[in-house]
Amino acid sequence: MSIYLFFNGQARSALNFYAEVLGGEVEHVLTYADMPEPPPLPREKHHWLMHGHMTSSYAEIMVSDRDGPEAAVDYMGFAIEIDDEDPGIAHHLFLRLSDRGEVILPFAPNFWAQGFGTCRDRFGVPWMINCDR
């Protein structure tokens, strides 16, 4: 399973952020200007990503920018969950993903995990970071 996220002009920044935080590599970046036919966006948005792809040991994440009515991005009803067996690494991932975002549940030990926390990153994407016992 892969994750595909949609943004409104922030896809490139999000893709680079996820590659940096998750220790991944950006594999593909295609802008709307790269399309063989005229892009469905105004000229000032041709630099937006039509498709971006990043892989890491944690996840494969793809992104795209949208415009107009289809640009309404609502990340309700799901979260991207990452497990790491090292509580220090899991906590570090949580701190990086929540930086300039919103901490919903601070990363801390609980009855099932050495550490667990939930947040929304700076792009509004929800995350759950877990380190099992």
Automatic annotation (TrEMBL):
Which regions form coiled coils? none
State the superkingdom.
Bacteria
Using the record's annotation, list all stretches that form the Glyoxalase/fosfomycin resistance/dioxygenase domain: 6-129
Known InterPro entries for this protein? Glyas_Bleomycin-R_OHBP_Dase, Glyas_Fos-R_dOase_dom, PhnB-like
The protein's name is Glyoxalase/fosfomycin resistance/dioxygenase domain-containing protein
Source organism of this protein record: Pseudooceanicola marinus
